[in-house]
Structures are given as C-alpha cells and as structure tokens.
Amino acid sequence: MRAQGRACRPSAPGLHCVGSTGTGMEMARTLDDIAAALKLGRHHRTGCTLLIGAGCSKTAGIPLASGIVERIRTDPLYQRVYHRALERAQARHRDHDGEPLEVRYADCMAEMEHGDQRELIRGYIDGANLNWAHAGMAALIKHGYVGRILTTNFDSLLARTCAVFNELPAVYDLTMSRILRYHDLPEKAIFHLHGQRYGFSLLNNTDELEEHKRHLRPLFDHARDGRTWIVCGYSGLNDPLFDLIQDCDRYDHALYWIGLDAEPHKDLRSLFCGKPSKGCHYLQFAGADEFFMHLCGALGISFPFMHAPLEHIEEILGQFVEFPTGANDQGLDLLKIAKGQIAKHKAVFADLSAAESADQKIAETIATQGVEAAVSALAVDHASLTQLSSDVRARIAFMQGYEAQKRAENAKDKPYAIQQYTIAAESYRLAVETDPRMSPALTNWGMSLDEKARLIGGDEGVQLCALACEKYEMALKIDPESASALNNWGNALADIAKFGHEQQKARQFLDLSLEKLSKAEALSPGQSAYNLACVHALRGELSEMVEWLDRSHAMGKLPSRERIGADKDFDEVRKTPEFSAWWTAMGWDAPHADAR
Questions:
Q1: Contact, 201 vs 219, CB < 8 A?
Q2: Would you say 556 and 575 are in contact if contact means Cβ atoms under 8 Å apart?
Q3: Using CA atoms, how far apart are residues 517 and 313, in angstroms rounded to an integer?
Q4: Could you tell me if residue 384 is inside a domain?
Q5: Alpha-carbon torsion (184, 185, 191, 197), positive or negative
Q6: In terms of residue numbers, what domain contains 80?
C-alpha cells in the first residue's frame, strides 16, 4: 500500500469522438481540433457559429425539457394539463405502432395556455444564475472566436454574461424579426430562434416550430457560410429545427456536435455516418460547463474578473466620461474617488505580493540551508530573522519537516529513517503550533507518524498510527475536501489492522479504511484506487481487488510491477486464480516469481 497520497490535479474528461471522413475510415476529432478550427476562423476574421440548447442552461438552474415535464406531472396546479398531454401521447402511441409511450415537452406545451407557458418558464429564467458554460461562450465571443450564436433557449443568460466581460453583442428575436439584412449584421450576434423571456412569443409546441422553421432557413444558410459550427446542449430530438441542421450537403468548415453519451443518438447518426461525408463530428463531453471551460483553456483564454479583478473593474470605470461637476451636494467626483480606491488596492496588493515573495525566499533558504546561509545569501542580519512574521516561521518549520521527510523516504538505513521521521514530525508540530490552520502541515505530520509506525511496528506502531489518524482528522476539519488527508487516514487505519489485531477487530479497522479511501477516491479519482485494491486484498474480496487494480491502471496510477510484487498486502492472495489472471493480463511473469 502506498503511504503517501497527494492531491492530484483532475484530468480532463475523456472524449469519445466519431466523425465521417469519406475515406472509408473514421478519424477521431478532439478538443484540440476544435481549438485549431476556431483559431483559423479568427485568423480569417470569421467567428464560428454556436448552436446551443437547454443543456447549456441546466447548471444555471433552468431544467431540461424532461425536468419541466416532471414538474407539470407532479404539480397539482398543472394536473389537468398533464392529463391532456398524456391523452395526446397515448393517441400518438396508438397511431405509431412500436413507438414508446412518452409524454413529451411539446405535448405539455400544446395543452397549456400560452400565458401559463410564459409564467412557468419565466419563473425558472428569473431565478437563474450565471453558469460556466455561458462564461466560456462570452469569453469566446470577447476574443473573436465566436460570431454567431443561435439559441433555442428563452433565457438571457448569454447576454447577461457577455455584459460581465464588457461585451455587448447584438440580440435578435427571430419570432419578431423574421426578415434580416444579413449583409448589415454585426460580426457578433445572438439569435433567439424560438423567442426570449421578454418577448411576446415563446414557441413551444411542434406545430408552431414546424411553421416557424421556414423563416429560419435563411439564417441557417447565412450562419454556415465560411464558419465552423459547434452544437452543444441541444439534443436535436423531436424538434423540426434539426431538419435545418441536416439539410446541408456538407459543412465546409466542419460541424462539431458535443453530447453527453458515448455515441450519438440513432436519430442523429445520419449526420456523422452518411456517405458522402457532411463534415460533421461527434464528441462526448461531461457537460456544457466542462466543455466550454476546457475549450477556453485550450485557447489560452483567461477570465479577467477572476484572474485580475481590480484591472477588470478599472477597465469598466475607464469607459465612463468625466463625472459632472455639481452632480451632488458635496461636490465629490465619485468616478475619480473610485479610480483612486482601485489604484490604492492595486498598490497594496503589489506590496503584499512582493513581501510574500521575499518572505518565501527567506523561508526556503533557512529551511534548506540554515540561518547562516540565509544571512549570507540574502544580505540580512540576524535581528531581522528573529522578527519574521508567524506566517514565515510556520513556512520555515513546514519546509524543514518536508526536507527531513524526504531524507527519511530515501534512507537506506532504518535507524536513520526513524530519526528523520521523528525530526519531520517535530517540525510539522512547530508549523501547526505557529499556524493552527496549516492543513498541509497536519497531513504531513500524520504521514511522518504513520511511516515511522511502519518501521517500528508493535504496540508503539499502533499508537503512532492512532496519532496520525488524529492529525488527518484535524486537517479535514480545516479542509474537508482534502483527498490527500482522507487517503492517508485510510492507509493509517489499514496499518493498524495489520499490526497484530485479532481478526474481528482488524476487520473493523479495514471497514473504516475503506470508508476513508472511498471518500478520497470520490474527491480525486485514481488517487486511492490502488490503496482500495490493497484493502480488498487484505479482506479477501478478490473481485473488488481486481476491479480497483484495473481502475488504478486505467487512471495511470498503478505502481510498478516490482512495487506490486513486493507489496505484502497481496501476500495472501498472490496465488489465487483472480490475482494470477489479473497479473497475466498485465503481461507480467507469474506473480510468485517476484522476490519479496
């Protein structure tokens, strides 16, 4: 079992891609291909076209169509509406033999009065928050990667989010403006295809959408001209609008359809698998928020209101003309005052950053080279070092503990390793004493105690492991999301179980170990997979052991063949058919052949 678990950076969700190439074989497209297409489009001063649906607004608090249907089904206020919608669905089911009985969103809307539709939908829209899918879109618009946004949604989330970026694209409601002068359109524009929150029409039922489709065809033709397409958050099912997407011989600059499922729905496959190729590609992604955040990352786009909030506010204030004299009784220039406050905060922040950088350099030098080296290398005197802030002193103690811990891990001599773990634990104790909120020091303190326990064993080892568990618990009170602390706590509990307890007691500790490791794995997938395999091996649960070994391998976290071959946690299961089969599947020699 691995003693030390470090919080690892989550990897991007895996992409599953299908796309027709016209060559008889399918070439996968990735996020990097989309980013490259957008860069090329911007180079030619042509932003891509986004077609977005309800999936892009889900995390903002606006449910999908299925969620609204469920609301209508369960809310007594809409009991009669749902009853009529069910009758409509049953009639369709009878007329189309083999079609499953399903009450659709369009069924409910067809049986609901238009005014009631608006009130129902407005209630969701008015309570919605900005989400990261729309933040990503707004950033892409701001940087010239997107020029046309076609949305089936009624909400104004994208316009609201663009305002945060100081970007104000034109907004058109296609239920009101059906005739557009396309050559006069600005480069950046949002088109509400079916209406919007403050408009007079919200098109919901199939008959309305079918009739409206012909008015949208010129816009779709225009939006395809010289532009890459990205479709996200839109299912395309039971919607006449899909015909406009499909009625195109070829997307000359490609269409990328982002979906949640590993494969496109059967009703969409003609887009991706037809001959000749339509230039359409399907990519699986975990959700709209994740997709647009990763796309922005691939394009190197940052969010100024997060990364440089003071500069962002300064940019907003810079758009105002001078404040009018005599506009208030006090004769104050409110704009000048606001700009002065921003400048003052920027100066304070710069000073703090410089001081923190200097403190960090002192702390690192003292921790790694000693006080005399710090005096010499940094041209400071002893008096100034004794007056270091508690934050710096805590960091010095932490680094000294870290250095000792590394020496112990690399030690060949057992007594020396025990000595260094003792020094490390004491250093971390001093760090926590100086800064009680230093969660990493508590976690590393526990790790040092646990590693020392493994070397010592016996009753003293059990006591040290128990102390380690206390440190992990303290760390989690400060940082409840620390996967590292949970992982190491699980390891320490497993160590206690292995230190000679009678079987029932050992089993209880292994149960607790599984609990902590499972929580760590949920927070940081892959980090605790191997340790979970070890605990299941100790419990004799062979199928679970193999499952977690496979998971660890799939996540790129599996230790080396030599490490696993020497891991005593597998000693009791090494010759079982399950372990042997897994080992052989890895392409390794017989597991019992390893020297331990």
A1: no
A2: no
A3: 44
A4: no
A5: negative
A6: 65-125
Q: Determine contact, residues 227/254, Cβ cutoff 8 Å.
A: no
Q: What is the pTM of this model?
A: 0.56
Cis peptide before 276 (omega within 30 of 0): yes
Q: Which two tokens stand for residue 354?
A: 């410089």
Answer yes or no: is 587 within a domain: no
Q: Please give the chain's pLDDT, 596 residues, in tens.
A: 654 443 222 233 333 445 544 444 456 789 999 999 999 999 998 999 999 999 999 999 999 989 999 999 999 999 999 999 999 989 888 877 767 788 998 899 989 998 898 889 888 999 899 999 999 999 999 999 999 999 999 999 999 999 999 899 999 998 887 678 888 899 999 999 988 877 667 887 777 888 888 889 999 999 999 999 999 999 888 788 899 998 888 999 999 999 998 889 888 888 888 777 889 999 999 899 999 999 999 999 988 777 778 888 888 888 888 888 777 767 777 788 888 888 877 776 665 555 556 566 666 666 566 545 554 554 444 445 455 667 777 877 888 888 889 999 999 899 999 999 999 999 999 889 989 999 999 999 999 999 999 999 888 999 999 999 999 999 999 999 999 999 999 999 999 998 866 778 888 999 999 999 999 999 888 889 999 999 999 999 999 999 999 999 988 889 999 999 999 999 999 999 999 999 999 988 765 544 44
Report the distance separating Cα 408 and Cα 423, nearest Å.
10
**Which residue type, as a one-letter code, is found at position 8?**
C
Count of CB atoms within 10 A of residue 581's CB?
Answer: 12
Sheet holding 146-151, edge to edge: 17-19, 280-284, 255-259, 229-232, 48-52, 146-151, 189-192, 170-173
Count the helix, strand and coil residues of the chain and give each as a percent rounded to the nearest 5. Answer: 60, 5, 35
- Whether residue 451 is found in the same domain as residue 416: yes
Dist. CA 593–CA 358, nearest whole Å: 54
Count the neighbouring beta carbons within 10 Å of the beta carbon of residue 286: 13
CA 148 to chain centre: 26
- Per-residue DSSP letter, 183: G
Task: Say which residues have a Cβ less than 8 Å from residue 530's Cβ, sequence separation at least 6.
Answer: 1, 2, 548, 549, 552, 557, 558, 559
Q: Count the domains in the chain.
A: 4
Whether residues 42 and 116 fall in one domain = no
In a domain, 344, yes or no: yes
